Amino acid sequence: MLKLSARMSRAKPSAIMLIADKAKQLKAAGHDIVNFSIGVPNFLPGEHVYAAVREALKHDSGAYGSNRGREDLLDAFLAHLREIGLDGYQRSNVAVGVGAKQVLYNLCEALLDEGDEIVFPTPYWTSYLDIAEILGAKITLLPCPPEQNYKLTPQQLDRALASNPKVFLFNNPSNPTGMVYTREEIAALADVLVKHPDTWILTDDIYNRMVFDGVGYHNFVQMKPELRERTAIVDSLSKTYGMPGWRVGFVAAPELLANAVVTLNSNHITNIPEVVTAAAVAALTGSQQVTREKCAEFASRRDDVLDALLSIPGVKCPRPQGAFYAFPDISVAFGKSHDGRIVGNDVDFCAALLESKGVACVPGSAFGEPRSLRISYTCPRTQLDAGLQRFKEFFAELAEMRESHAVSA
Questions:
Q1: pLDDT band at 366 (very low <50, low <70, confident <90, very high)
Q2: How far apart, in whole angstroms, are the C-alpha atoms of residue 215 and residue 9?
């Protein structure tokens, strides 16, 4: 009998994309859908990016490119690193990939043998678990509930690293929660990391230019430069520049690890397209006005989302300070019913919300926190306002049905 590899039994489709596809199908069928499910920025890059692409097309050779990335793109990324406070990297320390996801997969493939331990906090981005499972790693989750603002504590990290895991994976600003660690919080975690020299550190920092409230972006390497020799920093153009479909990701890492990514690129992708390279260089080196404007706009939307969520009795939501997500604890709804349908958990809640109100959200269990759900608030403002209103109506109807049942009982 013909069979697939054993690892394919551990691979599963993205939970986020499954919900996004369902919302898309409902919309195509004529339903009025507000899609809070998929994490796309919903804006386009500046005109200078498209101008660079048109110019590149005039001179396209059709040739293969560099496995590491074209030198002007590497230099543009190095300049970006310096701008956000990460000095001391050279071309030999960086590499590109087909989006941050492919870069992260390559990093994990380069570091993790089957059975090696990887630790990361929950809530987590869904692909962290998926990649680790495909590679057969031992996964240790560090629960960070809403009661601790979805943030990892130094004490948790210290206990987790006592077993000398191969990899510690960290995300700041966070997808799905939108939480951002302060300078003091990053410094405290860096102090712990220094004590455990046998663990590689992967930091997923793709939202580093989407930070609100003056909190700022901070990285372990800034706090403890000696961590540079075992830290890989993942970045991307997708969210910051409105370019998710262009698929440009980066890594800055020790030369040994950066070269491993380049070697895997030579076997996986060869290179990112030259036209895409031209767009990426233009995005990094050109005007940053669109990025700054969108960051301010997302901060304003965050305020509206938070106001709406916190107006609902029993709903809790730590204040997100980056990215474009809110991650409310909606467990107050569990055990109630909507239109005769029992809401037993986050999956039930999201299914009932989509069916009755046409609002698509991702259940928190997809991110390792089943009391919550993720709202991506990048849709057009009119849709955002309508979706938040429907969200509040859904909760109000839960309360009304509970009260009517109590009276009839």
A1: very high
A2: 42
Could you tell me the CA-to-CA distances from 252 to 53, 141, 163, 240, 326 in Å, in that order?
25, 25, 26, 18, 28
The strand pair at 359-360 and 117-122 is best described as unpaired
CA atoms within 13 A on the CB side of 50: 5
Residues 303-344 have pLDDT tens digits of 999 999 999 999 999 999 999 999 999 999 999 999 889 999
CATH architecture type of domain 8-38+290-403 = Alpha-Beta Complex (3.90)
In whole angstroms, give the CA distance from residue 113 to residue 239.
Answer: 31
Buried b or exposed e, range 348-367, using 16+ CB within 10 angstroms: bbbbbbbeebbbbbbbbbbb
pLDDT surpassing 60 at residue 409: no
pLDDT at 404 over 50: no
Q: What is the separation, in whole angstroms, between the first and last Cα of the chain? A: 59
**Dihedral angle over CA of 72, 86, 68, 97, nearest 10:** -100
Amino acid letter at 109?
E
pLDDT of residue 119: 98
CATH code matching the domain that covers 47-285, chosen among 3.40.640.10, 3.30.420.10, 2.40.30.20, 3.20.19.10: 3.40.640.10
Q: Measuring CA to CA, which residue among 169, 255, 241 is closest to residue 208?
A: 241
The letter for the amino acid at 48 is H
pTM: 0.93
State the chain's mean pLDDT as an integer.
Answer: 93
Please report the beta strands in 222-311, taking only residues with DSSP state E, as ranges in sequence order: 231-236, 249-252
Q: Residue holding tokens 């059709």?
A: 62
Instruction: Convert the pLDDT of each residue in 272-304 to its tens digit.
Output: 999 999 999 999 999 999 999 999 999 999 999
